[in-house]
Amino acid sequence: MTTDVIDLRDFYASPLGVVAQKDIKNSLSKIWPTYNNQVVLGFGYAPPFLEAIHNDVYFFMPAQQGVLKWPPAKPTLSALVDESLLPLADQTVDRILCVHGLENCHSTEDFLHDAWRVLKPEGRILFVVPNRRGLWARADNNPFGSGRPYTMTQLSKLLRSHLFTPVSFNRGLYRPPMTSRFFSPISPLCEKLGPTCLQKFSGLIYVEAMKQVYAPSGKGVFSKRLKLAFPVPLAGQHAKVLDS
Q1: Do 131 and 66 share a structural domain?
Q2: How many structural domains comprise the chain?
Q3: For a designed S-S bond to 17, which of 12, 114, 187, 231 qualifies (C-beta 3.0 to 4.6 A apart)?
Q4: Which regions of the chain are under pLDDT 50?
Q5: Model's pTM, two decimal places?
Q6: Could you please report the per-residue DSSP string of 17-52?
Q7: How far is it, in rounded angstroms, from Cα 101 to Cα 86?
Q8: Residue 138 and residue 154: Cα distance in Å, rounded?
Q9: Are 223 and 187 members of one domain?
Q10: What is the pLDDT of residues 87-99, one digit of tens each?
Q11: 118 plus 176 within the same structural domain
Q12: In whole angstroms, what is the distance from residue 25 CA to residue 49 CA?
């Protein structure tokens, strides 16, 4: 079940959501310290985590989730899209941040295929997804409890099978998804001990991957692709040259 965009907005305005947002932003600042002079796309629900300081940051929200105007008081940089038909030309984006996106996709394969298409060669895509072993994926009081959670191994295999090379792995959000007074003293302790003692039980996993670009292998493959690129009247003439 996909979380509605209004529910996402309300969650990040709640006490628990503020805690989660701060943790995610801290993690992202370490993975991507800067993205100046790059075209960055946020997919899913990324506005709380990307600063739209110039017109090179855009936000695509999938149709099944809904869309919010963003930024609220400035020219709109958000759009409602089909996850398998991103309205961008090939190789136009330097980085993609996917939050509340992958785990809610109707077709993971179609989305990853189109994300690969719009990324520039060696472009980066960063996934923030719920950890299958974590408490956040098992609770229904937060949006990470909906959709399909992943383990680090599962997500890495998925990306490799779609021509992405994982380049960095991180974890975060170790505190339990609760704001009661009883858990308040425990939360800081969980965050402190998490990276060393509770890694496999983190609330979120972060996998950054790079777009793979391979040269065509074999004379036959190269010739076939060149023939398709020529206008019809010239196809036969060039085909003879290539096959000789």
Answers
A1: yes
A2: 2
A3: 12
A4: 216, 218-244
A5: 0.82
A6: HHHHHHHHHHHHHHH-S--TTS-EEEEES-TTTS--
A7: 13
A8: 18
A9: no
A10: 999 999 999 999 9
A11: yes
A12: 6
